Amino acid sequence: MPPKVTILLATWNRAKMLPRAIESLQRQTFTDWEIVIADDGSTDETPEVVEAWQKKLNPAPSATGGLVSGEKRIVYVRNRENQGISKNYNTGFRVARGEYIAMIDDDDPWCDNEKLAKQVKFLEEHRDYVGCGGGVIVVDERGKEKYRYLKPETDKAIRAKMLFSNPMANSTTLFRKSTGEKVGWYDETTRYSGDRDFWLKAGLIGKLYNFPEYFSYYTMTGGNTSISKIRPHLKASLMITKRYKGKYPRYYLALAFNELQYAYAFVPEFIRKRIHTLLARLKRFAVT
To answer: What is the Rg, in whole angstroms, of the alpha carbon atoms belonging to the chain?
Structure first.
């Protein structure tokens, strides 16, 4: 029998991060799920780490009172070569069996053990909503909190921000699998900002909601895509904004905002690294 929820964990060369993410899933009070780990051609120890987890003793008791050997809820799919974020997510989506799909990034573990229980209950009771998310706690590489933020809560508030920045924090989200099928999953023509485009598409067929609660950590490191590959990332975000002219409010203001962000990508990297955290705070303030 298929699980109620598929948790899609996308990863690439972050073997050391995986245990913390998986452990955060195992602490969920809602247990009717599978983990699909989509590996985008990792060249580190990711395959060995996943195999070790599949063989690890599961603390859930068996019918005979012993321990169940192996985490049977982990499904591992691996691209032979690095395909990019959007294609890697679609690799995972294709094997997902759950009625709902929850997203988690390899370095952004969940922080609320009731996350899935709350979100599944919400979508079960609100059939006109296609997905939901929550707030984020930003931490450094050592796990020390830097700041936290909530996303716009109501569908109306979310739509007002849709063209400025992604109002759905990826690792906090849960959505109906049928929604992904209707909108065609992630756009593989764009290597970056596929999640933002996905939620813009999803918002055209149903309502969205963000819990005023913190569901996930976000690990800010010097290697985050937003810093090391900021130019193509922000260019993709700008192009995606242009796709939705006339479909969400305040298009021209949002266009100017995204063009300004793209111009920032041409600032020398050593300067961006110094001011990135400050600007990230200001951006969150502007779009939440």
So the answer is: 19
**Strand-strand pairing, 207-219 and 129-139:** parallel
Hey, what domains does the chain have and what are their CATH numbers?
A: 5-221 (3.90.550.10)
What is the pTM (predicted TM-score) of this model? Answer: 0.87
H helical segments located in the chain: 18-26, 46-55, 85-95, 115-125, 155-161, 177-183, 194-202, 225-228, 230-243, 251-264, 269-287
194-226: pLDDT as tens digits:
999 999 999 999 999 999 999 999 998 755 444
Question: Would you state the structure tokens that stand for residue 119, as one six-digit string?
Answer: 């979100």
Contact 205, 179 (CB under 8 A): yes
Question: CA-CA distance, 9 to 21, in Å (whole number)?
Answer: 9
Give the Cα separation of 23 and 109 in Å (integer). Answer: 8
Q: Per residue in 246-274, pLDDT tens?
A: 999 999 999 999 998 888 778 777 766 66
| Residue 110 DSSP class | B
Backbone angles phi, psi at 144, to 5 degrees: -80, 130
